[in-house]
């Protein structure tokens, strides 16, 4: 019986859990719509933003059971905005740009910056808090 349950569990595991590596998208070669839309379509992020900043950056939470990574670091938030796009809500301040997106990861600034540089990405790396770093593509 244990063997049957194990077989069923491992057969269903891809349905229960989803994983995605965001390295290629974070080389900044796509629009915010393509980046966020693709993650939403794959059901890797919750479609409604959990927060909208005054500069219109929308923060999305990974979907339950989804594991997202960027350059080997665990992603705990996806951020983005594209002007005049129904995927995004507008904040009450000046938008950051016409199209911007990224990922917020658990990792030290220097370690994340080194990984992004080694991958030849044009993304900008920002310290958010100790051990929390944003990898950000701004298309303007």
Write structural notes for this entry.
- The chain has one domain (18-138).
- Helices cover 25% and strands 32% of the residues.
- It has helices at 2-16, 32-41, 109-118, and strands at residues 18-21, 51-52, 58-60, 66-70, 73-82, 99-106, 124-129, 132-138.
- The protein is α+β, with helices and mostly antiparallel strands and 140 residues long.
- Strands 1, 2, 3, 4, 5, 6, 7 and 8 form an 8-stranded mixed beta sheet that branches.
- It starts with a helix and ends with a strand.
- It is built from 3 helices and 8 strands, in the order αβαβββββαββ.
- Residues 1-19 form the signal peptide.
- Keywords: Signal.
Rg over CA atoms, rounded to whole Å, is: 16 Å
Overall average pLDDT:
89
Spell the H/E element sequence. Answer: HEHEEEEEHEE
Give the distance, in angstroms, between the N- and C-terminal Cα atoms. 58 Å
Summarize this entry quickly.
25% of the residues lie in helices and 32% in strands. With 140 residues, the chain is of the alpha+beta class.
Per-chain topology:
Layout (H helix, E strand, L loop, with lengths): L1 H15 L1 E4 L10 H10 L9 E2 L5 E3 L5 E5 L2 E10 L16 E8 L2 H10 L5 E6 L2 E7 L2
Parallel strand pairs: 1-4
Antiparallel strand pairs: 2-3, 3-5, 4-5, 5-6, 6-8, 7-8
Keywords: Signal
Question: Key features?
Answer:
140 residues; 8-stranded mixed beta sheet; 3 helices; 25% helix; disordered N terminus; signal
